[in-house]
């Protein structure tokens, strides 16, 4: 939930740089599906690849809902969420609505309960744990209803989430990976990249264009690329991508640091930040 709020604050920052005053349950649900999507692919780092458990008492309901959608409409484990949404828009809409209801019912009214006392220090909502499914179902169906789907951020929270993103995100991801590792009796180091690493999508369609743009040279080592099919696509910088020689990955750290001096360019995710 906190990762979703951080992402939404980053994505919905106004032109002035100010974060949003509120987000909606619909926006959070869409972001939660996006975050959990890679979690519902089978994890290959075990004897029999399977989807990892994220709940001590059985699979988490949101994970199970996404798994059912993928089984019916996106059986390819490598299928991107965006492609699956376009391929089965009605089923995807039902998935998002189901996730939205689960968020309204469970974590949103309970996340800020400390002991038996509600202490809304992150956000305020206009419902509690007694929310009626009937009323929310009417709202989800688009009918006129008094349900208010806004999650109102407390004063200063949006700014803090933006400022502390670089600190909170790795901390939350590490704790999440540790929890999943414990539930599945796996090494934590195996899971963080699997759960939160950048999606790898098919890039064959853009490879030839990048090959031409880069004057048929590797982005990292500038070696000549004889044909685009012998190259791999790696790392995006905003709207830019580069192709590399498949054999030059070992030199990424050195070349990445050199290029960083010239521009805020590509470095490998595993590289240590250059000390300032």
Describe the protein's topology.
Layout: H1 2-11, E1 22-24, H2 25-36, H3 61-73, H4 81-87, H5 89-105, H6 107-110, E2 113-114, E3 117-118, E4 123-124, H7 133-140, E5 150-153, H8 157-163, H9 165-184, H10 188-196, H11 204-213, E6 231-237, E7 240-245, H12 252-262
Antiparallel strand pairs: 1-5, 2-3, 4-5, 6-7
> In percent, how helical is the residue content?
40-55%
- Profile the largest sheet: 3 strands, antiparallel
How do the helices and strands follow one another from N- to C-terminus? HEHHHHHEEEHEHHHHEEH
Give the total of beta strands: 7
Quote the beta fraction.
5-15%
Report mean pLDDT, rounded to a whole number: 82
Number of domains: 2
Mass-distribution shape: globular
Query: How many helical stretches?
Result: 12
Unreliable stretches (pLDDT < 50, length at least 5) are 235-242, 249-276
Supply the helix-strand structural class.
mainly alpha
Give the radius of gyration: 22 Å
Distance between the termini: 33 Å
Reading side by side through the largest sheet, how are the strands ordered? 1-5-4
Describe this structure in words.
This protein has two domains: 195 residues, no CATH class; 59 residues, no CATH class. It has a three-stranded antiparallel sheet with strand order 1-5-4. The longest helix is centred in the middle third of the chain and has 20 residues. The chain is globular and about 65 Å long. Helices cover 46% and strands 9% of the residues. Helix 1 packs across helix 2 and helix 5 runs antiparallel to helix 7. The protein is mostly helical and 276 residues long.
